Amino acid sequence: MIPPELTGPYGHALMRDGAAVLGADGNPVTTLFNLPAFLICLLLGGLLIIGVSESAKVNNIIVAIKASVIIAFIIIVGWYVIQHLDTLKANWDPFIPEPTGKEGEYGWGGIFRAASIVFFAYIGFEAVSTAGQEAKNPKRDMPFGIIGSLLICTVLYILVSIVMTLMVNYKLLNVPDPVAVAVDALGPAWGWFAKIIKIGAIIGLTSVILVLMYGQTRIFYTMARDGLLPRVFSTVHPKFQTPWVNTILVAVLTAVSAAFFDINTLGDMTSVGTLAAFGIVCLSVIWLRTTHPEIPRGFKVPLYPVLPALGIIACFALIFTVENRVLVFFGWYVLAAVVLYFLYGLRNSQLQKGLQQHD
């Protein structure tokens, strides 16, 4: 049994069923360290070191379980909603709640604030592109994988949102397990299904961690091969043929972050960083098309330059919907990255010198 103090981020009151958990002394329990999250991240890091194929097999099993649970939720709860739509449709009235005056709470401001949070769910699609070196035919497989998974997941996201907000009033869904709350609303007879949903949610989050950690290790590997990072981070394990040094670094950084920071802060930081990266990619498409039109291009951007221009506007508009403290942290992070680039990366980059990357 894990002590309750070791089940949450540092300095947060442990909550259960909307109420603070009290310790033996009668005072609210304040968490110090999220031990389960820490151990899961280290375990997944070890799996990534063992190999891509092994990680892919585990991830395929996890995704199959997760998809089955999501589809079951949509079908079962959706059928209940259809049967009781006359009474449950009141949960959509009003469809867009009036703003409370608090920044980002309801109204159109709340919609844009939610968009910056929900964006976190779309980060995994970028991870597909980081697997280009493991793909047999990247030119064909990358667009198919990214666009195909994007369409499927978007449809599932929308269906889950529709079913969940019709089943339960939105005011009751601001909890760590909103899907379980929606299932609990079916009644005690569906208690077994609620347990399956909770297990499926845990399994699903595990697959997200695995995919994103994998993507980050490949980004560090590519940067180290070019010289933007120290060459040690491109070191490949002689037996497992994986970039084991930078995988250990990613696993430790991820584990420590998960152990000490709350999920809302981590989600905002991740979304801001990814939004900025996506916006810069859109800007780079326009810049390179203008300055280097002769570069061979394996992929084409549809509706150029309208689509990348809209991408820039959308990404940077969503960035400024997050809390100021997150923006301040991101500002310092960008400054540190720029300093690292000019003091180390620019001097050692093989691409900058017109040289081939070292294997």
From TrEMBL:
Keywords: Membrane, Transmembrane, Transmembrane helix, Transport. The chain crosses the membrane at residues 32-51, 63-82, 106-125, 146-170, 190-215, 244-263, 269-289, 301-320, 326-346. Its main location: membrane. It is a multi-pass membrane protein. Pfam families: AA_permease_2. It is found in: Membrane. Gene3D superfamilies: Amino acid/polyamine transporter I. InterPro entries: AA/rel_permease1 (IPR002293). One of its GO terms (cellular component) is membrane. One of its GO terms (molecular function) is amino acid transmembrane transporter activity. This is Amino acid permease. It comes from Arenimonas maotaiensis.
